[in-house]
Amino acid sequence: MAAGSTAPTPTEYIVHHLAHLNSSGHAQKKIVDFSIVNYDTVFWSVLMAVLTGWLLYAAARRVSSGVPAGRLVGAIESVVDFVHEQARSIVHGDVRMIAPLALTTFVWIFMMNAIDLIPVDLPGYLGGFLGLEYMRAVPTADLNGTMSMSLVVLGASIYYGIKIKHPGGFLKELFSAPFGKSLVLAPFNFLIQIIEYAAKTVSLGMRLFGNMFAGELVFLLIALLGATATWWGAGLGFLTGLGWAIFHILIITLQAFIFMMLTLVYIGQAHEGH
């Protein structure tokens, strides 16, 4: 919080840490509000995108024939091979553009999720040092951010559906599946297709948001435990925080993997007919 302010209550502490630096100039009252821009979500997501691009580029520059790869290159190569195999097994078509998309998705989301491992008060402290009242650092714990990414996946699945089936075939499928070709059934087919697209998009964004928001909230509760003016509270807060951080590494990796796999599944479905 701002310098010189009195110590916040636990409720004020949590509410303040869950508030975004946004275009409205005050704390965001809704979980999702597309009428305002969360500047912190944009900043940290773009920063992690730049770091992701640099990391992959640096690994690619170090690859050379006949020279043993270092640890970084070896780790990246393992991820690349794994993602490429997943893309080939799920998408029945040309994956030269799809596999890099899946790789970028996995690494980028992992990097954004990993911000949750830094001390919860550090982003707010840095923001306060710069004169900013709010600073929330985990983009994937913002529903606006995760829904934006799921909308991109929706756009990619529609794009590949039109590309593979051509515009006529794509529109024909919208009105003929899943109940069959019939003028009477066409409106129901179209409604089911719209519901399916909407459900996949909402569930994709909500799943990532829900898990990361819950993890962030647990870190805040542990920080409150560690802030108690007792030695056992501080010690217990450190131990529980360390334990949760170690377990959270699995969560941030798993959530990035799930988002990547569902991206491949939805694009793979666009390559197939009903």
Domain tally:
1
Low-confidence stretches: 1-5
Kindly name the structural category: mainly alpha
Q: End-to-end distance, in Å?
A: 54 Å
Sheet with the most strands, sense and barrel status? none
Percent in helix: over 70%
Task: Tell me the quaternary state.
Answer: single chain
User: Helix-strand pattern, N to C?
Assistant: HHHHHHHH
Report the β-strand fraction as a percent range: under 5%
Molecular structure report:
This protein has one domain. The protein is built from eight helices and no strands. It has helices spanning 10-17, 39-62, 71-90, 98-114, 121-129, 143-176, 186-226, 231-270. α4 (98-114) runs antiparallel to α8, α6 (143-176) runs antiparallel to α7 (186-226) and α6 (143-176) packs parallel to α8 (231-270).
